[in-house]
Here is the input.
Amino acid sequence: MRRLLGLAAIAFAIAACSAQAPAISSGTGGTTATSPAGGGAAPGATDPVAAHERAQAVLSAWAAAVAAAGNHADVTPVGELTGQIGDWEAAVGDNNKQALMAGMVFSDNPLPDQTPPDGTVAWQDGTVTKVPVESAQDALVAIGSTAEASSCSGCTPLTVTDATLTSGPIQTSRGPATAPLWEFTVQGSAVKVTRVAIANAVVATSPGEGDPQLGLAVDSARGAVSGTDLTVSFVGAPDPGNVPCGEDYTAEAVESDLAIVVIVTRHPHDPPIGEACSAVGARRTVPARLAAPLGDRVVLDLQQGTPVPVVVSP
Here is the structure.
């Protein structure tokens, strides 16, 4: 599963002027990861018209997701709503990991379908809000209906024997929070499968495959509720564009009354012929000016069409 109730680790290779096998630095602690195989030139907004069309498609898909949820939710979870507590045992790990990714999680007997009382979501700044909580049965069904599209024809489905309503950490469009979770006991394993228990959560779907040549992927943002300045974070070149192998960035916000998509455009240094650039990434930020105050709108990644965490100040 690519993310389990948390932010995914971002791996991004900045353009290499020679065909080196690069490494990626997180820019936050010196950790590195192998560059994706076949990584070529770094993405950038080379076609502004196409980038705007993509941004509008992302905004439209989000509006459709909000309408399908039936409300403009006070809490918007970020990332996967399904997760797990613990590691699969060696004897069942290969099967159970793939089965969970495919949403093959069932119960021999229906779980309770009564709607629990409202739950509480609490953010790290002390903000608290009430949210509707879905039943255990609805949460179990949702695991299958929102699973990643993956094939697991030879997998044995996971059998759930019990469900417990608890609370735990989640990531939201307003940063980390503690929220209601369902924990499902799985037959033959000590691992607990979890599901965010917020009813009618807005679940975005990407409007088709993203094109990395239209702009960099944004992984977080910060801004003030009443402000029109938004700063987005992403992985980019370690150095500015006035030095060899460096890059500068500009950002443009495409907005609706529900959400904001930020197009981040690369402005790379023009390297002399024969100059070799290592593909090392670092944490970079760039400001974007909004046409209207941030308010309670979500910030959506241009590539995936999904919300990113936003650190919000009053």
Q: What stands out?
A: The two ends are 35 Å apart (CA to CA).
